[in-house]
Amino acid sequence: MIPHKKKIIVLGGGPNRIGQGIEFDYCCCHASYAIKEEGYEAIMVNSNPETVSTDFDTSDRLYFEPLTREDVLHIVEAEKPAGVIVQFGGQTPLNLAKQLEDASVPIIGTSVKSIDRAEDRKLFKAILKKAKLNQPQNGIAKSTAEAIKIAKKIGYPVIVRPSYVLGGRAMRIVYDEIDLDEYMKKAVIASPEKPILIDKFLDDAIEVDVDCVSDGKKTVICGIMEHIEEAGIHSGDSACVLPTFSLSKSMLDEIRSATNSLAKELKVIGLMNIQYAVKNSVLYVLEVNPRASRTVPFVSKATGVQWAKIATKAMLGKTLQELGVEKEIIPGYFAVKEAVFPFSRFPGVDPVLGPEMKSTGEVMGIDKDLGMAYMKAQIAAGQKLPMEGKIFISVNDRDKRTIVGLAKRLASLGYVVVSTPGTADILKKNGLEVIPVAKIGEGSPDILDLIKNLEVKMVINTPGDKKTKFDETKIRSGAIMHMVPIITTISGARATVSGLEAARKKGFNVCSLQEYHE
Amino acid sequence: MPKRTDIKSILIIGSGPIVIGQACEFDYSGAQACKALKAEGYKVILVNSNPATIMTDPEMADRTYIEPIIPEFVEKIIEKERPDAVLPTLGGQTALNCAFQLAEMGVFKKYNVEMIGANAEVIKKAEDRELFKKAMQKIGLDLPKSKRAHSLKEAKQVAKEIGFPLIIRPSFTLGGTGGGAAFNIQEFETIVERGLEASMLSEVLIEESVAGWKEFEMEVMRDLADNVVIICSIENFDPMGVHTGDSITVAPAQTLTDKEFQLMRDASIAVIREIGVDTGGSNIQFAVHPDTGRMVIIEMNPRVSRSSALASKATGFPIAKIAAKLAVGYTLDEIPNDITQVTPASFEPTIDYCVVKIPRFTFEKFPGADQTLTISMKSVGETMAIGRTFKEALQKGLRGLEISAAGFDDLKFKPTVAELNNKLKYPCAERIFYLKYAIKSGMSINKIYDITKIDKWFLNNLKEIIEVESFIKKNKKKILKNPSIMRKAKENGFSDIQIARLIGSDEVSVYSAREKMGLKVSFKLVDTCAAEFPAFTPYYYSTYELEDECRA
Q1: Residue A2: exposed, middle, or buried by beta-carbon count in 10 A (0-12, 13-18, 19+)?
Q2: Where does the record place the ATP-grasp domain (chain B) (predicted)?
């Protein structure tokens, strides 16, 4: 018998679901490749038959088993590994980490304690205080009365969510006390055991996602991504761009130094993802996840470095210096990630975005020009953006100021703007020609008829208040059913207009990753 | 036949973003194809807009284009790279549709690109309902009565001819988008209108409903020398009427007689030959009437599918990899099986275990969505479990689903009689747990069968799990000390959490009690050949038997 090599077990992500998909399969595969490259035996545990991680030649040995304490312990007993990796399979292996550690299973990489510290609100607050970093004002409410008091103190709008659910479930942005009261009554029952978390919502803030890798001593930034949609849309659902396009150098440096100090404080070995928000030139930390995030494959494709592999090797004891990873790579082109939604499967459901993740997948558009990269991402996501024709615009009061400029740009590209009375008035006052159309049920044809007859080629509709919600839902789900491209955020509209301008000017080019990375 | 040397570079089309109906199984198949073709020395050019895939890793292909998978962009890539051939059968419906459009536009002809795996004619014959019907009739296979329509008026005429209930299927869509079953004219009109819009050809097929019939799938492969192998048979626990992607499925098929199975086998071979898939894998779906045994063919996918990924994982036979090699001219007998290294790919896999796949849903994310399972797919993921019996595999699958079930659990509330009947009749994500409630509340297997049309063999297996549950409860005091009682529980797939709940203990105590009594799990091999030959790149599943095949 040849003496056995040391073994490392990688725990996979189990069945795909919204919020935990192919990205983690990607990370687990790279972990396995890295383990093999470093001369260990790679052992994979996963139960998802759709994946590459369960391909027979991805690892040295594969266990097709459920990811539960019992099943994993059986495998650990049979294999006696030198280490078990829990940070690449999404929430599934993390949920097991504590139980496995209690059963003396050797977890490698960032410690389970650090992962818990980042998830526990009190401990997390202390970390930020120590690192002198800001967090949106927040509080914990154990009753409706308490919730109202806290919200009044920190000021509306606030984000509310139950403390005991993950992934943005039942998370809501509320703008006033009536809303909050309704949420507390309808959606959740707050109690001492199940309190409600309340955060100040930073409206109109720019959201930023950062992935970094650390060997325990040195930290290198994998990528800083700027979101297109403003804060308040789940990061998995918003489009993002690498490199950033509107942040100042001093803000980027502030982000880099904050990332470094958080990695140090949490003693990260492996990957970490941080979500920041920037409002009025102030940096806020929204969330820290000391593990592989959904954006790792996107950042890897955009920068040409296999970050999950680097992270695995760091977890096996290599330093970043030994791995030749010295500094952040800022590409000389733009990569845009856009989310893809399953709304067409659920007729009648309002396809509006919010703090709860709803996308099933993602695409990437890549180009030297930001507008073009955004357009490519939109086309790849299945939006049939029109090159001419009528565009329906109806926005809420907050967005009315911004939409004027965008509508003018669309008009100068030759598009015809169609609006319902409210938005039409504003646009006309600003000297724009607008074709008026009746609201639903207030004339014939109404806007829904125009959508059904495919007379409008694109819809820009940002959600208003409760009064208009009923009509808006019909308009938006009507657009989805008839495959008319729909944009529900003002920042999305802005990016789309820039994209249409760029596409008109230059036309599309294709270029391979190998050429980009050269 | 040796591999082709007249082609040097091959364009592989991926499947794009993860959507319902098209998930990472196409990353699995595409990545296998890239690796296989690159290893054979071909220059591989890849297009896929999804950055989260392994296949778009720069080292997987010689040229990787992260660009939209629509004809305009793919044409630009062809113009730039000038591939000799295009392989469109590994990127799901997206790749197949895109390639078909490019062929129709004359792009392949213009740049002298050959379609390998499946050409435009084959795609059309399999996807165009009318041509498919003719082809099946030609080889003497039965189909549900059907007719196509291009307008609502035409559709209503067809409805009159065939009679309700009816199934409406739009041509050329993905995962059945826009399709549905109609029991009356109101439902019919809504679905037809939606279907006409969803179809690339503004065409719907109106079909005799075979809802409630038993549903089967066969995974088949064929090479240029006309050798055909059956890789795996799959049976749906949920009968016709629920999309395969939303059904609990079982491999191999459990409830067919040998005669029925042989008939289905022969039919599958005849189908792949008639449609003319020269090289590669196909998925063929059948429905069997539970009383008369009438077998009809439902559809055929001339490409690698979600089910072929499942069949690959269930058997150890890498369908996509073999399909890629067949596409460049190898024959099945020339390709070695990586797992045994001695048997060729023409050696049909043998399974000495039971595989259960269970879909995962996320309806909680879409308030207001209709949660009834229909022929339009709604699940977002799946888990697969392997056991020595259906009972063991089902329980493992349910605990692997991560919906906070520890196995075949009880409902967390007591449904009313009306609610129960409703949930049994109209399939939903939790139907399996309602079935348990129905059996435990004393509803007879015959009654449940009448409502659900789920085969009695499956229902009786569920009943047996419930009997073991009572057995564990009865032996509450003994089980933690008595290995034979514990073994019976574990052989039937009961998790430690389930046992703990039944006897009023906790998971950790059950685990350590098992350790103390020396009742160990044994690991068995998935080796494609039921242990006839040694396996080299094995994978394992756990069960409770005396012999352990693990070489850790």
Answers
A1: exposed
A2: 133-328
From A6, which residue of chain B is nearest by alpha-carbon distance?
A: B552
CA torsion angle A292 A293 A298 A299 (round to 10): -60
May I ask the CATH class of domain A206-293+315-329?
alpha beta
Distance, in angstroms, between A250 CA and closest chain B CA?
30
Q: What are phi and psi of A299, to 5 degrees?
A: -65, -40
Q: How many whole angstroms separate alpha carbon B199 and alpha carbon B210? A: 22
Q: Which of A496, A460, A486, A517 is nearest to A372 (CA)?
A: A496
A-B CB pairs within 8 A amount to: 276
Strands A7-11 and A41-46: parallel
The CATH number assigned to the domain holding B250 equals 3.30.470.20
What is the Cα–Cα distance from B71 to B262, expressed in whole angstroms? 42
Strand order in the sheet with A390-394: A434-436, A416-419, A390-394, A456-461, A486-487
How many domains does chain B fold into? Answer: 3
Chain B residues closer than 8 Å to A302 by CB: 51
Tell me the CATH number at B78. Answer: 3.40.50.20
User: What number does CATH give the domain A383-506?
Assistant: 3.40.50.1380
CA angle A450, A454, A460 (to 5 degrees): 70
Residue to test with chain B: of A360, A453, A480, A517, most B Cβ within 10 A? A360
Instruction: Kindly state whether residues B190 and B245 are assigned to the same domain.
Output: no
Q: Which of A434, A441, A436 is nearest to A471 (CA)?
A: A441
Q: ipTM, 2 decimals?
A: 0.93
Does A33 contact chain B (CB < 8 Å)? no
Q: Locate the chain B residue with the closest alpha carbon to A169.
A: B365
Q: CA B410, B544, A69, A58: dihedral to nearest 10 degrees?
A: -120
DSSP per-residue string spanning A293-318: -TTHHHHHHHHT--HHHHHHHHHTT-
Same domain membership, residue B364 and residue B215: yes
pLDDT in tens, chain A (518 residues): 445 689 999 999 999 999 899 999 999 999 999 999 999 999 999 999 999 999 989 999 999 999 999 999 999 999 999 999 999 999 999 999 999 999 999 999 999 999 989 888 889 999 999 999 999 999 988 888 999 999 999 999 999 988 766 555 678 888 899 889 888 887 666 566 678 889 999 988 999 999 999 999 999 999 999 999 878 888 899 899 999 999 999 999 999 999 999 999 999 999 999 999 999 999 999 999 999 999 999 999 999 999 999 999 999 999 999 999 999 999 999 999 999 999 888 887 888 888 889 999 999 999 999 999 999 999 999 988 898 999 999 998 888 889 999 999 999 999 999 998 888 999 999 999 999 999 888 888 889 889 888 899 999 998 876 666 778 888 888 888 788 999 988 888 999 999 999 888 888 999 999 999 98
Chain B neighbors of A365, CB-CB under 8 A:
49, 66, 68
Domain-by-domain residue ranges, chain A? Answer: 7-108, 137-200, 206-293+315-329, 383-506
